[in-house]
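TICKET: design request
STATUS: open
ATTACHED STRUCTURE:
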């Protein structure tokens, strides 16, 4: 044995059969010489009682020094408990991205995600991930592929961000399943598009116009009483659309709604008397457990978006989304002095930071409160019992 160098490797002669030559200084590092004259660097190591070999690359494409450095890295991984040969074979046999998407939806999303999240993931996969990456193998996807996908969706920047967030989760799960090497997630360090949160609050005058539009839609039969009541309930409770749309009779109590599941888990939502009266006055259908019944009376309303577009057009509120009814509830609560901790519980926010996005709306209430505190303190420290009129400091 001698040290494998460019000169010593090129001096190796061909024989009838291929043979191995091992490096003198780095144990496990060698070169295989084929009868054709091709020479390939490799590493040999043991895992338990089994001997493994992994090819590094062909002489010519790699120098002996480059191959030696790669061999050191691989042998270092082995010393830390890795099995590079098995990992390479696993990645080679890994499914395509299309196959990973199917397994991800069936085995992970269906078990761990809310139905709304599952539907959103399925849509992203169908419209963007499969067409762009579906034919690639799981181990072949690198950062530039994900960057290209993200950039290709630049016309819909929010959707682009949602797509790479989902991809990141999917590749993490692929690592857990042994389909990619640990720490190889190609979505890491990809800069997301800047997002400006949309918040729209209805003014008192706009709330009046909305109420008139709802009444008119009900009067002329454009919308059903269940649809109209759904929008009123959203405005009066601050609930999320799905929480009202799929509300069941059994969840309604005189003072609250008791939802066994929601975006943030089980929720107990205060139910104002006005909302209670609207919901409990709705017609019921035998065999239908849902409050907001659909046209056939057999299940809940499946589409509130199209009725909402008709109603907001009638009210002259074309820029208002259904979710803005929830924003309006929070804005009115904050303006009326509801403290953020209480509002957090009412709205079902996971953390206080989400609620504090509405804090600026309480400026008037804060100003009044600060003024009343200052006035009371001034009455104690700046005036005597007999003094009348404003306090003045005399130099």
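STATUS: resolved
RESOLUTION: sequence designed for all positions
ATTACHED SEQUENCE:
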């Amino acid at each position: 044995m001698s040290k494998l160098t460019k000169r010593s490797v090129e001096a190796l002669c061909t024989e009838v059969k291929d043979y191995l030559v091992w490096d003198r200084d780095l144990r496990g590092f060698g070169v295989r010489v084929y009868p054709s004259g091709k020479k390939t660097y490799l590493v040999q190591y043991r895992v338990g009682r089994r001997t493994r070999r992994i090819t590094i690359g062909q002489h010519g494409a790699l120098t002996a020094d480059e191959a030696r450095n790669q061999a050191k890295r691989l042998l270092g991984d082995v010393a830390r408990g890795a099995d590079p040969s098995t990992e390479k074979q696993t990645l080679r046999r890994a499914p395509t991205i299309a196959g990973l998407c199917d397994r991800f939806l069936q085995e992970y999303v269906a078990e761990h995600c809310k139905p709304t999240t599952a539907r959103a993931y399925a849509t992203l996969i169908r419209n963007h991930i499969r067409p762009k990456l579906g034919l690639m193998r799981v181990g072949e996807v690198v950062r530039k592929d994900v960057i290209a996908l993200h950039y290709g969706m630049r016309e819909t920047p929010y959707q682009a961000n949602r797509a790479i967030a989902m991809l990141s989760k999917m590749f993490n799960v692929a690592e857990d399943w042994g389909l990619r090497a640990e720490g190889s997630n190609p979505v890491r360090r990809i800069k997301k598009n800047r997002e400006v949160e949309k918040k729209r609050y209805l003014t008192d005058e706009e709330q009046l116009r909305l109420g008139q539009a709802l009444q008119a839609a009900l009067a002329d039969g454009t919308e059903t009483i269940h649809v109209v009541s759904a929008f009123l309930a959203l405005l009066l409770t601050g609930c999320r659309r799905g929480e009202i749309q799929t509300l069941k009779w059994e969840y309604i109590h005189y003072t609250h709604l008791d939802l066994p599941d929601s975006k943030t888990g089980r929720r107990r939502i205060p139910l104002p008397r006005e909302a209670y009266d609207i919901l409990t006055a709705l017609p019921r259908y035998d065999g239908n457990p849902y409050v907001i019944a659909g046209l056939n009376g057999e299940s809940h309303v499946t589409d509130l978006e199209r009725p909402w577009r008709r109603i907001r057009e009638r009210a002259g509120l074309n820029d208002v989304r259904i979710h803005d009814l929830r924003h309006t509830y929070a804005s009115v609560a904050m303006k009326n002095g509801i403290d953020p901790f209480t509002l957090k519980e009412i709205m079902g926010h996971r953390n206080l930071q989400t609620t504090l996005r509405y804090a600026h709306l309480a400026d008037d209430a804060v100003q009044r409160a600060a003024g009343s505190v200052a006035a009371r303190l001034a009455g104690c420290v700046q005036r005597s019992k007999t003094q009348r009129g404003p306090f003045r400091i005399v130099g």
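CLOSING REMARK: The chain has a mean pLDDT of 87. The first helix runs from residue 6 to 10.
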